[in-house]
Amino acid sequence: MMLAENPTDADQRFVEIVRLAGTNSLQEKIKRLSLRIKSGKSDGYKKAGSFCATNSAISAASHFLFGAIYPQHPHKIAGTILILFCNYLRIERSGGVKIIVQDQVRHNQKGFADLASLYAQTKNCYFDNIEFDMQSTRWFDADMCAVFGAILYRLGENLNAVRLTNLPSQMEKIFSRNGFLSHYGRDRISDFWSTAIPYQRFDIEDDRYFSNYIEKGLVNRQEFPNMSPGLHKQFRQSILEIFNNAVVHSQSDLGVFSCGQFFPHRNRLVFSVVDLGVGIRENVSRYLNMEISPEQAIDWATRDNNTTKNANIPGGLGLKLLREFIDLNGGCIQIVSDTGYWCRKNNATTLEPIRHPLPGTVVNLDINTADESLYYLESEYAIDNIF
């Protein structure tokens, strides 16, 4: 990070902004803000915060412009101000990092491993320019935008400027239809065939919005397998519990990311939920008071009645019903956390490590839409037989 040779003029303009606003109480708040900035949680914010705290002009402008909006997150105020005004103060970022995205990113073990590799190459970047070059990328499963978007969001939280470049035209259309590129300065285009479940980030308090999202985008789709009303309700609740577990277990305020896609030629409806929290291994290891591999931790968490929640909060990962349905439907459930990969497919479970850790936890649900069966809960079937 380099300062212009003479930033004094710009500093003076910011001082003038605060002087015009000016009260003694505001100056006191600025002083307290400067002290609190230094306790920012992430290394990126600490670096930005330290710079802002020693620059009275930026500290003043931080409080004046954003103090009322983000009073609980002074380190984020500092980082936001530093980004917004770096050009104004002629502050330059580091030289930059260029990452080549793989030729194919599919929702399978290799696809998750490839995205984890992208994260491994960039996780230590702070206040950098990061370019993801997709010129060689021939295919990218749209539901994997949830994983990719979560990684890019984490990099943004470290005050990096992230760019996607050289997208092939077909991929740009897919990413524009599901709204992914709208987060990176591109326009959203109409999803004429209604195959996309939009890419979206939810705050941890947004369980009601997530419920509406899965109702409209997933379980009420015409391609969704036939279910009784009771099972339909329970299935929806199980998906919602994945969101709730992401909130409770992740211990992160970075949100929950979701995206999906109907693949008509494959007869598949695929849906992903991602958080950026501490991961399953850390939670399970702490709960069991023993070291455990990431993939074994996922397997433990998916077993019936296993949970690291407090006793007054029901449920584990909430996958029992989903797993039973997938076994009958011919679909697939994949969970990735840290370097652990867990997959339930063809009535068998696969546990494998991946080379690089993926931040947080991914739950990927793959439903076979060619299945014409009608599904009931056991309790509903018993009642029908009575009459």
Descriptive labels:
387 residues, single chain, globular, alpha/beta, 12 strands, disordered N terminus
Give the C-alpha Rg. Answer: 24 Å
Strand percentage: 15-25%
What spatial form do the alpha-carbon principal axes imply? globular
Report the structural category. alpha/beta
What does the largest sheet look like?
A: 5 strands, antiparallel
Distance N terminus to C terminus?
76 Å
**Quaternary form:** single chain
State mean pLDDT (0 to 100 scale): 80
Number of helices: 14
Unreliable residue stretches: 1-46, 63-70, 84-91, 311-315
Helix percentage range = 40-55%
As laid out across the biggest beta sheet, the strand order is 6-8-9-11-10
Order of helices and strands: HHHHHEEHEEHEHEHEHEEHHHEEEH
**Tally of DSSP β-strands:** 12
